Every structure is written in structure tokens, then in C-alpha cells.
Amino acid sequence: MAFFSSIEQWLHKHTYTGNKSLAQAQLQQTKARILLSCASLLYVVFHGEYFQLYKFEALSFFATYFILNSVALLKLQQRPFRVLGSLLYPLLDVSVVNFGMLIDGG
Asked: Which pTM was predicted?
């Protein structure tokens, strides 16, 4: 557990972009995730080759992704992600992109 706390301290101390704190940068990234996921869903709905076959899965996956990012948006206003959140959200992004590519036909 000391390993995670040392990584968390490093993240909070050394991750600043310009005049933005880590929480502000993560808040901006989460807003971008929500907007880009909405645009991506619209694209897949209109142009995805396999959307009709996987409509339920795609909409369920999008709803889960949207809810998780909305909750993150609320929590980030109080404090930045911990180490687990900093690692899991990028992995979630990759899984969403992969699923979208499958529905779009590769």
C-alpha cells in the first residue's frame, strides 16, 4: 500500500500543466471525454456497419461510460482522482474506442 501512496503523492505534487492544478486538468479531460463520447456515439449510430447487430450493447456501454464520467465530474470538483482512478479511466477510454471500432467495422 505504501507504493500506491507514494505514486499518489507524486501525482498530486508534480502534475501541473501551466497554472492548472491536477484536479482542474482532470476536470477538463472528463468534460472532453463526455463531449467526444456523445459525438462518437452519433457517428457510430449513423455510420457503423454493425450498429444494428450490437445496438443494445453499444447503448448500454455508452450509458455506463457516460454515468461513470458524470460521477467523476462531480467528484473532481472536490478533489483529484486517486491512483486507481488515474489508471482506470484511461483503460476505460481504450475499451470504449475498441468497442466503437468493432461496431464501425474496424
From this structure: 0.71
